[in-house]
Write a structure and sequence with these properties.
The chain is mainly alpha-helical. The protein has a single domain, classed as NK-Lysin. Helix content is about 65%, strand content about 0%. It has helices at about 1-20, 30-45, 50-60, 70-75, 80-85, 90-100. Residues about 1-25 have low confidence and may be disordered.
Protein backbone atom coordinates (compact mmCIF):
# COMPACT_ATOMS: atom_id res chain seq x y z
CA UNK A 1 0.00 0.00 0.00
CA UNK A 2 2.82 2.37 0.89
CA UNK A 3 4.54 1.63 -2.40
CA UNK A 4 1.33 2.37 -4.28
CA UNK A 5 0.98 5.75 -2.54
CA UNK A 6 4.60 6.64 -3.29
CA UNK A 7 4.14 5.61 -6.91
CA UNK A 8 0.97 7.71 -7.20
CA UNK A 9 2.74 10.72 -5.65
CA UNK A 10 5.70 10.31 -8.01
CA UNK A 11 3.37 10.03 -11.01
CA UNK A 12 1.44 13.16 -9.99
CA UNK A 13 4.61 15.19 -9.47
CA UNK A 14 6.04 13.99 -12.78
CA UNK A 15 2.92 15.03 -14.66
CA UNK A 16 2.82 18.43 -13.00
CA UNK A 17 6.38 19.06 -14.17
CA UNK A 18 6.03 17.56 -17.66
CA UNK A 19 2.68 19.10 -18.52
CA UNK A 20 2.48 22.87 -18.06
CA UNK A 21 -0.61 23.76 -16.00
CA UNK A 22 -1.96 26.40 -18.33
CA UNK A 23 -0.73 26.65 -21.87
CA UNK A 24 -3.38 29.00 -23.15
CA UNK A 25 -4.88 31.43 -20.67
CA UNK A 26 -3.22 34.79 -19.95
CA UNK A 27 0.52 34.47 -19.86
CA UNK A 28 0.34 30.90 -21.11
CA UNK A 29 3.28 28.90 -22.33
CA UNK A 30 3.07 30.14 -25.91
CA UNK A 31 1.73 33.68 -25.29
CA UNK A 32 5.04 35.51 -25.56
CA UNK A 33 6.08 33.49 -28.58
CA UNK A 34 2.75 34.17 -30.28
CA UNK A 35 2.95 37.93 -29.77
CA UNK A 36 6.53 38.01 -31.05
CA UNK A 37 5.58 35.94 -34.11
CA UNK A 38 2.70 38.30 -34.89
CA UNK A 39 4.94 41.39 -34.45
CA UNK A 40 7.53 39.86 -36.76
CA UNK A 41 4.90 38.90 -39.33
CA UNK A 42 3.52 42.45 -39.31
CA UNK A 43 6.93 44.00 -39.88
CA UNK A 44 8.43 41.37 -42.18
CA UNK A 45 6.97 42.80 -45.36
CA UNK A 46 6.08 39.29 -46.49
CA UNK A 47 3.07 39.12 -48.78
CA UNK A 48 2.17 35.57 -47.78
CA UNK A 49 1.63 35.90 -44.02
CA UNK A 50 0.57 32.26 -43.64
CA UNK A 51 3.75 30.95 -45.28
CA UNK A 52 5.84 33.26 -43.11
CA UNK A 53 4.09 32.18 -39.91
CA UNK A 54 4.25 28.49 -40.82
CA UNK A 55 7.99 28.72 -41.46
CA UNK A 56 8.67 30.64 -38.24
CA UNK A 57 6.43 28.37 -36.15
CA UNK A 58 8.29 25.29 -37.40
CA UNK A 59 11.65 26.93 -36.69
CA UNK A 60 10.61 27.84 -33.15
CA UNK A 61 8.88 24.55 -32.33
CA UNK A 62 11.90 22.58 -33.53
CA UNK A 63 13.87 24.18 -30.67
CA UNK A 64 11.42 23.11 -27.95
CA UNK A 65 12.62 19.53 -27.58
CA UNK A 66 9.99 17.20 -26.16
CA UNK A 67 7.34 19.95 -26.48
CA UNK A 68 7.82 20.18 -30.24
CA UNK A 69 4.68 18.22 -31.12
CA UNK A 70 2.57 20.16 -28.62
CA UNK A 71 4.00 23.42 -29.90
CA UNK A 72 3.29 22.57 -33.55
CA UNK A 73 -0.26 21.49 -32.71
CA UNK A 74 -0.97 24.63 -30.68
CA UNK A 75 0.20 27.01 -33.39
CA UNK A 76 -0.88 25.08 -36.49
CA UNK A 77 -4.44 24.90 -35.19
CA UNK A 78 -4.68 28.71 -35.10
CA UNK A 79 -2.43 29.88 -37.94
CA UNK A 80 -5.36 30.66 -40.27
CA UNK A 81 -7.08 32.72 -37.59
CA UNK A 82 -3.84 34.55 -36.81
CA UNK A 83 -3.47 35.44 -40.49
CA UNK A 84 -6.98 36.87 -40.52
CA UNK A 85 -6.34 39.01 -37.44
CA UNK A 86 -2.95 40.18 -38.75
CA UNK A 87 -4.59 41.21 -42.02
CA UNK A 88 -7.19 43.11 -39.98
CA UNK A 89 -4.27 45.02 -38.40
CA UNK A 90 -5.14 43.95 -34.86
CA UNK A 91 -2.40 44.39 -32.22
CA UNK A 92 -0.28 41.28 -31.57
CA UNK A 93 -1.57 40.74 -28.04
CA UNK A 94 -5.17 40.93 -29.26
CA UNK A 95 -4.46 38.48 -32.09
CA UNK A 96 -3.01 35.96 -29.66
CA UNK A 97 -5.82 36.46 -27.14
CA UNK A 98 -8.43 35.88 -29.83
CA UNK A 99 -6.87 32.54 -30.81
CA UNK A 100 -6.52 31.45 -27.18
CA UNK A 101 -2.73 31.49 -26.86
CA UNK A 102 -2.76 34.37 -24.35
Amino acid sequence: MRTLLLLAAFFTISLSIALPPNMQAGGGLFCTVCTELVKDAETSGEQDVKAYLTKEIKAFCDTTGFLSTTCQAAFNSVVDQLCTYINQKLPPDVCCQKVGLC
